[in-house]
Structure formats: C-alpha cells, structure tokens
Write a structure and sequence with these properties.
- It contains seven helices and eleven strands.
- It has a single domain, classed as OB fold (Dihydrolipoamide Acetyltransferase, E2P) (Beta Barrel).
- It has 252 residues and is of the alpha+beta class.
- The protein is 24% helix and 28% strand.
Length: 252
Amino acid sequence: MQVTALPSWRTAAGMTLLLASFVALLGTVVVLGTRPDGSSERAPGSDGRAIPAERNGSVADPAGAGWRALALGGQADWPEYYTSLRQMARTATATIVGEVEEVQPGRIVGEAPDDLWSTVVVSVRVTRVVAVGTTAGAGIEVGDVVPVEFGPVEPETASESALTSIVGDVALLFLRRKGEAVAEFGISEVPEEQARGWYRLVSPQGLYVDDAGRADAVHFSPVDWPGESGFPAELDGRAFLEVVEEVARVAA
C-alpha cells in the first residue's frame, strides 16, 4: 500500500500551504460537529474549553495536545455514532494498532479565500490488524502504511509542533475507508474517494492512544473532560493491550 506524496510540514511549501489557511481563520468561532442528541462540539477556545496541556494533573503532554487537536477538528456532524464497542468494532472497515510515521498537510477545503481549512494526513504503519469489518478492510496487512485523514483543523488548537509531536506514538484506530458506503448510517458510496485509498476515523470515538501503557480515549477521557461517559470513557485509563484484546474479542 502506497501513501500519496504530500508536501511535508517541514518544507516551505507545506508551511506556506497551512499558514495561508490558518491565518484566514484566526479569531473565528466554529461549530465542529453535532452529536445525535443535538448538542454541539465547538472549537476549543470558542467556549472557554481549552485543550488540556497536562495529563493526570501533573505531566505535560504535548503529544496528547496534538491528538486532541486532530480529534476535535472536523468529523462534521459525527457521520457515525456508536453506542457500544462491539457495534463499532464490527462495523468499522478495519481496526488497527499502528505507529505514527509522519504527519503531513492534506487538502485545503473551503469555497472562499476567507473560509479555508486544511486537513491533516497521519501516516500510520500497521503493527496489528485487530479486526476487519468490511471487504474494503481485508487488504490491510501488518507493515502497511495507512494514510488517515483528520480534520479539517483550525488554528487555535493546531500548530506544527503539536501535530508533529505525535510522530512515534502508538494508537488503536477504528477506521473507515473514505468513500465507502455505510448503510446503517445512510452514507452513500463515493467511488472517486474510495479509489484514493485513504481512511478516516469512524468518529472521534474511534481513537485510543497508548499513553505509557494506558489507553487514552483522547476526546472522551474523564480525566480531561469531566462528565464524559459511555464506552470510550470506560476504556480510558485501562491497560492499552487489555483494551486491544477486548476489541479483538468483541469483534470476533
């Protein structure tokens, strides 16, 4: 599996591309998504909810800040929303454990010069295929580098240092092949998107980062977001490998 070549964060072209979109968005208030109950996820900083700079109340976690920036960016209207780990594991295209190899700017989206956003492509080398839920996921193998598109991101929570700090991190990701039809959620097939071979998270519920051997549920961690509940919050803080094995069990 090949990753489409993109300008690196570290190149002048890559930085120019991103800065153009970030500068255009400074000072804006953006609604990032809507949960099924009608509540909104707003950009951190727009309602006083800042991305935590610390984990467990003491240890600075810049990599965590990078993941939170990606998890909060985009995923507009929560295209998929799950009520159980079993449902998510069996419905996702594939669930993998992988190591982040590179973070790159993706596509610039938006119709007006003053309303531009940038997606982010995270290249993940697969170290374990935990579960395969659809035929589109059957081709993913250990050793493949899978491009996972996040966002679009906004400037208040995304910076070069925060995003590139996730390189080397290991995570459990529940993936959806972009362009794949999902009848359960009324998502139609988009053949040209599917042909690109890129992936996204099924939803922000589908990301668990290995944080010193413990699973960090990122956007659903009660440590960072008091009051969070549901199965992602219940997985947060458990042994990472234990969570991986539970996913394998419920998906079987």
